[in-house]
Amino acid sequence: MSKRRFSPFEALNYVLLTLFGLSMIYPFIYILVYSLNDGKDSMMGALYFLPRKVTLENYAQVFENREIWQAYKITLARTLLGIVLHVTLCTLMAYALSKKTLPGRTFFTFYIFLPTIFSAGFIPYFITLQKLHLINSFWVYVIPLLFNFMHIVIIRTFLQGIPEELEESARIDGYGDFQIFLRIVLPLSGPVLATISLFIGVTHWNDWFTGAYYVSNKELLPVQTLLQQMLTEMEALSSSMQRASQQGGQTVNANMAGATPESLRMALLVITVFPILCVYPFLQRYFVKGVMLGSVKG
User: Fold this and answer.
1) Exposed, middle or buried by CB within 10 Å (0-12, 13-18, 19+), for 7?
2) Vertex 182, ends 140 and 278: CA angle to 5°?
3) Which candidate, 34, 28, 37, 33, places its Cα nearest to that of 57?
4) pTM for the model
5) What is the largest CA-CA distance in the chain?
6) N or C: which end of the chain has fewer CB within 10 A?
């Protein structure tokens, strides 16, 4: 059996795609290596693929911080609750809009599409949240993200592909609309619901803006906002420590085990990104299928 020969064009494609993939992966490798290396030793530089002085002290210091545990609870709560409520609302709306017999179907579609075109801006949005008593509240993370027109379109397109004969046979058996939705539509909608869950879940997990501008209570800050604040606060201290190290002086505010603001920051980055990296591979196959739905049918 003869071996397959690659053309020069195919070989070049493989090389370029491999280099491109490595360029995307390497920043994560660098952060992981830095977080597993002694902080003082990391200030010497020359860390590329393997830690030079392995330690878990950076992670120990991070997990000892009560604020981080509280922020993680807020992030997990808003992500799980946000996924459930968002997918439920969008699926119900998409199911109704997928029915051609719905009175005012065109009007309702245009009505929910209009807010995606026009935006009042930051100040009117802030005033609206304030009037709804959402400022400095946990629900400011959940309620504004309950609706997404594109997610509704994706789910509606998927539901329109379900054979109508299934619902007709269910009606003959005495099922109502709600029973049909629960027992027929939802079980068949696993791929698109997983896709939407991934979309909104990543949005909730990565959102730092809401906590930074609409929440002042530190007990309600999500982990991404806390990370953003720590990055800002540690930047000046990290720079001063690096300058002191280069000049041969004493490092400032370093603990006994050698953890530094930079190494703690890297450890926190790993802890923050790790859950999404674990979940994404299990939903990736649904992600590709869900993205293609909108291009098949209008």
Assistant:
1) exposed
2) 55
3) 37
4) 0.77
5) 84
6) N
